[in-house]
Amino acid sequence: MKIPRKILPVAAVLLLLAAALLWWLPARWALPLLQPSLHGLRLQQVGGTLWDGRAEQVQTPAGRALGRLQWQLSRRALFGQVDLQVDFDGPSFGLRGHMRKLPANQVEWNDLQAHADLTALADPRIRLPWGQPRGELALDARHAVLQAGWPLALQADWRWRQAAMHMKSGDAALGNLHGTLAAQGGVIHAQWQDDGQGPLRTTGDLQLSPLGWRLGAELQARQDDPALSRWLAMLGKPDAGGTVHVERKGGLAASSIMGKNAR
User: Hey, where are the domains in the chain?
Assistant: First the structure.
């Protein structure tokens, strides 16, 4: 079948218009296509393009405002290569970093920075045996590979400023803590210590996998604090020097986690 010559210029113009529209596609036009992947979150006051856009307000399904979102999406996404720079800023949570989709349903993050106000995010309906954490938690991850949300590889530092545990009897102030996070082969290894000046002297080590976990920590109050003393008493009996030694484990692979780490 021979295409009439008069149609060819029209088809070429339409093709160029379609390509231009896709190249500079307004973000608000693409929003209906993106909405199913947002897990119920709603983007309001959307501007810019699909490739370089912003939402002045991100809301929960219940309508609670979370913060402001900016993104830069590589046009290689048209060929299945998702490469995204994201910057989310909110009063109780913030995140920025570079994300790239990998094969096997994996996601790679680089230069990821996140912070959370634990007090603002606390859910009073959730009861934890050692109290609810308070303070500001900050994470600086140089590299992370996730699969179904679980880190397969991770290199990160973290800080917990003005750390405290909220209990019915009052808040136990812990001071400022900091540590590292690492993951290899799906096993997460966290270490921490205090800054040397706060009300609590502590060092600790946590190993965690989908099949088990193991925790080891030493904690000692630097000064007389009734709330902190009550909280430490929940963890265990202090030794002659006043240090509480915590050893906990659970799950099917708690012992093998330590074995892998030792090797």
Answer: 92-262
Burial class (CB in 10 A: 0-12, 13-18, 19+), 151: buried
Across residues 6-26, what is the average pLDDT? 62
Residue 4's alpha-carbon distances to 11, 18, 250, in angstroms, are: 11, 21, 74
Length of the chain: 263
- Cα–chain center distance at 141: 10
Band of pLDDT at residue 193, cut at 50, 70 and 90 = very high
Q: What does the pLDDT look like over 43-53, one tens digit per residue?
A: 999 999 999 99
Q: Report which residue type is found at 101.
A: K
Which two three-digit tokens encode residue 134?
């308070």
Cβ proximity of 245 and 235 under 8 Å:
no
- Is 56:47 a contact under the CB 8 Å cutoff? yes
Provide the 8-state DSSP code for 49: B
- Residue among 157, 111, 163 at smallest CA distance from 138: 157
Q: Is 123 helix (H, G, I), strand (E, B) or coil?
A: coil
Give this prediction's pTM: 0.84
Q: Which helix (H) or strand (E) holds 250?
A: strand 244-251
DSSP E strands in 23-64: the ranges are: 42-48, 52-59
Q: Mapping DSSP to helix (H, G, I), strand (E, B) and coil, where does residue 82 land?
A: coil
Within 10 A of 118 (CB to CB), how many other CB atoms are there? 18
Gyration radius from the chain CA atoms: 25
What's the first-to-final CA gap in the chain, in angstroms? 71
